[in-house]
Prior knowledge:
The protein is of the alpha+beta class. It has 3 helices and 10 strands. The N terminus is likely disordered.
Amino acid sequence: MKILLCWLLLAMLLPVGQSTTESTQAFRTIEILKRENGYGNFESIAFMSGEDLESFLKKVALQPGWNHKGEFVDALISAHVDFGKEALVLLRHTEGSGSVKVAFEAPVLKDKKLLCQIVGTPIPPGYGGTGDMAYYCMAVVVSRAQVSQVEFQATRGGFKAQRLASIIFQIK
């Protein structure tokens, strides 16, 4: 009877289909501001260790020009990345005008390759747009067991769509 009660209690407390020892999730996105001036301080980057992330965050702490630096740093820390099993990838995109509409496509996993896309839509004809640079970023945590590569594809909007060269990160 006690064993049956223990099993029933565990069944109620644990979500169906989820292992208690390791996550079955191949990737997860971290909610960060999509647009932030401070993103202009770095390029797309993959972190394979806590030390790499810590070094990056120390550099960020010294950088001027951020509107919401604390929120960005807090989001990365709050993600609780387990670098023994996971890697963190920051995918950064630049547009030459804040008038460009930018879309973040949902990442797609195929054969251990995670495809992430940020797409800028061209400014409509006859509209001049603004002259300010706009910086965007997507943060993704990936399972090292389920993802061996992250491919970042971006399309710059401006007055004519321009597909940029893909960036590929090997996840080790």
